[in-house]
Structure formats: C-alpha cells, structure tokens
Write a structure and sequence with these properties.
The complex is a heterodimer.
Chain A (H helix, E strand, L loop, with lengths): L6 E14 L2 E14 L3 E5 L6 H6 L9 E10 L2 E2 L6 H4 L7 E4 L3 H4 L6 H13 L3 H14 L5 H4 L9 H13 L5 E5 L7 H18 L2 E6 L2 H7 L2 E6 L2 E7 H6 L4 H8 L49 E4 L2 E3 L15 H9 L13
Parallel strand pairs in A: 3-8, 3-9, 6-7, 7-8
Antiparallel strand pairs in A: 1-2, 1-4, 4-5, 9-10, 10-12, 11-12
Chain B lengths: L3 E14 L2 E14 L3 E5 L6 H8 L7 E6 L2 E2 L6 H10 E4 L13 H11 L6 H14 L16 H13 L5 E5 L7 H18 L2 E6 L2 H7 L2 E6 L2 E7 H6 L4 H9 L5 H5 L19 E6 L2 E5 L1 H10 L2
Parallel strand pairs in B: 3-8, 3-9, 6-7, 7-8
Antiparallel strand pairs in B: 1-2, 1-4, 4-5, 9-10, 10-12, 11-12
Classes of the chains: A alpha/beta, B alpha/beta.
C-alpha cells in the first residue's frame, strides 16, 4: 500500500522555532517526512520531542510565539508554510486536515449541545442548510457508535462519558470528510478497554471514509496496534522511520533500542528495567553531533562531533545513526531488541538487509 | 506465609449527596502481606483510588473494617493511633506536577512531615534526614534549595517519593505513580520503587490501570470493577489463568508492543448483564489455591473446568 501510493503530504527540511523568555528554542530541527495516501503513520516520541509541534504546522496551529524558520510542507500542490492568515487556513484546517486531541473534556464546549457542535462545523465548512447538516450529524453519530443518536443529539457533553465524548470529537473531525486525520494522543485520557474500542473505531472509519491517519503517541502498544509505518522522534528530529514491523522487530537507532528496552512487558521480573540515563538536551542551545549521544551507551566519538545522516536499511527503513556507517564498529543490540527480532522472525546481522 | 500488614474486610464506601447516595466500594476484602506489592487494577471510577484514600482515612469507611499492623484503623480512633497511621502509611500520587507545593523549596517539602510530627531533635538531624531521603531517590543535596519547577516530571516524582521516605513508613500506597510520566522516566521510577522494597522490606498497595506495568511490579493482583473485586490471584497465575470475564476483557484490551500480536488480537468486551445472578447469587470463591473470583455456583464450576 504505502510503497505504491503517492505522498499526500510532503515535509522537507522543516524548522520550527519558538521565542521563550527572549531566548530562541528550536523545536523542530530540519525534519523531512512523506505521508502516503490511506496509510496510518505513527509518530512516537517523549514529551518535548516535537511530535505535536510538527503536526501543528500542518494545520497552522502553532502557538503565537512559534514560527516556521525554514523548509516546506507540501499538500495538494500548495506550500502550507506560505499560508499566513487564519482565513486562508480555513480551507485546510478542519476541512482537509482535521485533528483529534487528547482530552475530550477540553475539546468540546461544555455549554453547547452535542448535536449543535457537530452541525455548526458542517454548516460552516460545507455551507449546507440546517436540516441537511442535522441529517449528516445523526449519521456520523451512528457511525462513531453512539446508540440512539436522535435521543443523544440534544444532550450536553457532561451527559456523555469520556469515551463517548471522544467519539463525538471524532465525529466532528470527520464532519467535513478530511483527507488527513491527525490523532494526537487520542486515547491517553481514556481507560484501556475504551481505548481499544476507540482505536478500532478509527480503523473502521478510515476504511469507510478513506482518509490518511497520523497518530501521535508515546505508547508503543498503541503504535503496534494501529500503525503501518512509524517515525521515531527525538529532540526535534526524526531519528528512525520504517514499516511497523521494521521498527519493532529490527530497529537500528540506539534511541529506538532504548525505548524498546525500557518496556516492562519485555523485562524479567526481579531484574531492573532498563532506564535511559539523563534527560533530553535543551533545545535552546545549538546541538552538535547526535542529540542522543550523551545518553547513549553505543555512542561513537564521531557522534559528539558530527550529526549523522540517514542510512538506508531497506527501501522503506532509514535510521539516523553513525552505527550504520560501513566504518562503524559492530554494535551488539540490547537483549530486549534481540528478543523482538526473534519474535518477528528476523535474523540479520547489523547492516545487512532485513529479510522477510 | 508472611505476616499480614494490612487487612481490609468487607469494606463499603458510600458517598452521600443530600438524599442521593452512591456506593463506590462494595464489600471489598483483601490482605496485604509484609514485604509484598499488592496491586489493585481497575478502570477510572472502579473505586480503586477510593480504597486507597479510605485506608489513609481521607474517606470514611461506611461499613467493614480496615486493620493495619494488627490494629483496627477504620472508624473512630484515638490520636496516638492516628499519628501512627500517618507516619507509617504514606501515599504517592499520580501527578507530580500537581502534588508538590510550587512555592516551597524541596528542603521544606521533604521535611514537612518531619515538622508536623516533630521527628527530629535539632536542625542538623532534620537536614540529615532530608539529605538521606534525597540520596535514596537519586537526587543530590544541592537540590534541597531548589523549587519544584526546576525539575523534570521524573525528578518531581522522585521528590514525592523522597517526601514519603523521610517519614520511614512501613506501607506505601502508590496511586498510578508512573502513568503521568514518559516511557523512559517510568523505568527510573519503577526501578526505584522496586529497589526500596527489596532494601527495606516496604509493602506496597499499587493502584494502577496498566496491566503490563502491574505484571512487572506486583506480587499479587486484585481486579476491581464498579466497586467490587472480581478476581484476585498471584500475578503470573492471573495472566496464565484469568477466570472472570472482566479480567479477560481487560487483558484483551491492553495494547502489546508487538505488531504481529496486535494484528491477530480479538477484543473481548465485558457485558456486566451477562451474569445470571437472580437466583444463584455470586460470592467470593477460591477457585484454585490462592486464586479467588466473584462467581455463583454455576460460574465457579465453569471457571474451574476451563483450565482443567
């Protein structure tokens, strides 16, 4: 699927800076990314890695102290970086690229009836009469799994449970039939059983409405469940990307290794969990070399001096680490990564092409 | 079998609001042994936090009894026992961003309990206790003069743990201590809690919704749903032989970091109306040794047969 279809969105060398207390912080450091039609891409990273900021540039929702300092975001023949006014953004935001945020408590207006919150979006963007908008809203409520939509149409948000509210937020996001749906930690505030239902719902709706999905999450379980492709972010950069199987069963970047190693699911009871030492670098300063180097057991001398380029592992899998350089010494990945390789039936030596 | 440190018997907690009342915890019983991590797993609104809060007497028990270290601590108790409980049962909360006083130094935050109970002879001893607690959680003495906003989420959770340790409690209630933290930070905090248990024989009531974390951390697990315990077993036993349909639905819902497993996964949805409890009433039964479930006569037979 992703290999054959065309990119629907192309990000090139994007750089985003924020002005905080008279100092400048670089939140996104020259990120390039292709999003393919109908795929589900998961962007994984810790808080502060830039995953949310990156997707906010797709809908012009950067905070007022932020600006795009370089690069481009190409969508439907337009460079979104050139869009300056909110009025111009209206044609994209919500209409073509919609976002579902983490907390359904704050994304709905507590004082407006549920039905009105859906119809107002339809009336505004599609310029449809109220009767027609109501009909579409009821259909959407049914699609997102609200039982008896006619009856729940006039309820207020407080009369809905957390999971039901998130269903409504998804209905609103889909009201204008967007081409891209950005799900920013859509299930973090929900219970596990509800989370599983919402993930299933988004998958079902994707088939039904043919949109492309970007998931932003820190939960590798969710990623494994939803993603076709995965991009791993660290300190404002994508450090590794590939198919979901490549990232879980044959990761190559030491940061991805560290993430997988710190999962309690792979740990043996009674043994300490792997913890990444230190903290992410401050983005106020210019970063020299590989941003992960100071926390990385596998760091080479060159990591402290020169930023690594992307090395190709397979036609779909790339990692930004000097370990993949032909001159690099052999690095033995951590135990947890070896366990994952076995699970995925991947038997390769570092550097060799992954076999399927 | 080691000694029971905390015993909860037939606990009910009811909240009243005018004429309306809501029973958040219904007839819950369990024991926590000395040196054990006992996990209470359930979804939001299941009553798991209410149980924790009732143990430390923030919420009163409506019925039933709680005993700590052999003494009854629910209902009316004298001042001496109250002090004893506060010192020996300490709680770690979910959100370290919300549970520290932003305007106090770390030194004050960690010693607040010591001040309240006059747990030091002189200033030198107080500082020594603070430094010791900070060192225990991997922080430095120089951190004592700083303010909470200067620390990351993981460090703040460690400050919360230092504050708890300064009291030298026997029992810690950890209410979702890592769910607000990033993946890499979670490991640090889990390791710390685990080390403290091994080094000092602390006992934990670990309240969580994430079964993968609980599997790593807990010795025994109780599953709670709508205020009632549904199942209780040793950790690996629960994962190997889940009995109650609610436990099965929880296990099926946890996303595993393994794409091939996730692709084939079948979600089990629990419908509380599935039980036929009109005539055959449910009770708390030991289906396998040490493995309990809420079941009626018919279900108990089915549960036992399922793993024969």
């Amino acid at each position: 699927m992703s290999e054959t279809s065309n990119p629907i969105l192309k990000v090139r060398d994007l750089e985003v800076k924020f002005r905080v207390r008279n100092k400048e912080l670089t939140a996104i450091r020259r990120v390039s990314l292709d999003l393919y039609e109908n795929e589900t891409l998961a962007i994984v990273g810790e808080s502060g890695s830039g995953k949310t900021v990156l997707t906010k540039t797709f809908t012009g929702m950067l905070e007022s102290n932020g600006r795009i300092a370089g690069g481009s975001v190409e969508f439907e023949g337009r460079n979104l970086v050139d869009i300056k006014t909110d009025k111009d953004w209206e044609a994209i935001r919500g209409a073509k690229i919609a976002t579902v945020f983490q907390d359904p408590m704050t994304s709905l207006n507590p004082l407006k009836r549920i039905g009105v919150q859906i119809t107002e979006v339809i009336e505004k963007h599609q310029k449809l009469p109220a009767e027609e908008a109501r009909r579409i809203a009821l259909t959407l409520m049914g699609k997102v799994g609200i039982k008896d939509p006619e009856k729940r149409f006039s309820d207020y948000p407080f009369q809905y449970s957390g999971g039901m509210r998130q269903r409504i937020v998804i209905a609103i996001a889909l009201a204008c039939k967007p081409r891209i749906l950005i799900c920013d930690e859509p299930t973090t505030a929900l219970d596990v059983t509800i989370q599983a239902q919402i993930l299933d719902l988004i998958r079902y709706l994707q088939r039904e409405y043919n949109f492309t999905t970007i998931y932003i999450t820190h939960d590798l379980g969710v990623v494994a469940n939803v993603a076709d492709r995965v991009a791993v972010m660290y300190a404002g950069q994508i450090v590794e990307y590939g198919s979901v199987r490549e990232i879980f069963y044959d990761p190559r970047h030491p940061y991805t290794w560290a993430l997988i190693s710190s999962l309690p699911t792979l740990a043996r009871k009674g043994e300490p969990l792997f913890a990444i030492p230190g903290t992410p670098p401050t983005l106020f300063n210019q970063i020299v070399g590989d941003a992960f180097a100071p926390r990385n057991h596998y760091a080479l001398n060159v990591d402290f001096e020169e930023e690594p380029p992307f090395f190709q592992v397979s036609p779909t899998h790339f990692a930004k680490t000097w370990l993949l350089d032909p001159q690099a010494p052999h690095a033995d990945p951590p135990e947890a990564v070896k366990v994952m390789r076995k699970k995925g039936n991947i038997y390769t030596e570092s550097g060799a092409e992954a076999s399927r | 079998m080691s000694k029971t440190i905390l015993s909860v018997k037939n606990l009910d907690v009811t909240f009243k609001n005018g004429r309306e009342s809501f029973t958040a915890v219904k007839n819950v019983s369990f024991d926590v042994y000395e040196g054990e991590s006992f996990a209470l797993v359930g979804e939001s609104g299941s009553g798991k936090t209410t149980i924790g809060r009732t143990i430390i007497r923030i919420n009163p028990a409506s019925a039933g009894e709680i005993a700590f270290d052999g003494r009854k601590i629910s209902g009316v108790i004298d001042k001496e026992l109250d002090t004893y409980i506060i010192r020996n049962i300490q709680m770690i909360f979910q959100d370290p961003m919300a549970s520290l006083n932003e305007r106090a130094t770390i030194d004050y935050i960690v010693s607040e309990g010591l001040y309240n109970f006059n747990l030091f002879k002189d200033e030198a001893e107080r500082r020594e206790k603070v430094f010791k607690a900070l060192n225990d959680v991997g922080l430095l003495e120089e951190h004592a003069e700083r303010y909470p906003h200067e620390f990351s989420g993981g460090q703040r959770q460690r400050i919360c743990i230092a504050r708890v340790l300064a009291m030298q409690p026997k029992f810690i209630i950890a209410d979702e201590p890592i769910s607000a933290l990033d993946v890499s930070i979670r490991a640090q905090v889990l390791n710390l809690l685990r080390d403290l248990k091994q080094e000092r024989g602390l006992s934990y009531l670990f309240i969580a919704h994430d079964l993968t974390v609980v599997r790593y951390f807990a010795d025994r697990i109780a599953v709670i749903h709508q205020g009632q315990l549904k199942e209780l077993a040793a950790t690996e036993e629960l994962f190997a032989r889940p009995l109650h349909p609610y436990t099965k639905s929880l296990l099926s819902a946890v996303p595993m970091p393994d794409p091939d497993v996730e692709k084939d996964k079948k979600l089990i949805v629990y419908d509380p109306t599935m039980h036929e409890y009109e005539t055959d009433k449910p009770s708390w039964r030991e289906i396998f040794p040490g493995h309990f479930a809420l079941a009626n006569e018919k279900e108990a037979a089915e549960y036992a047969a399922a793993y024969r």
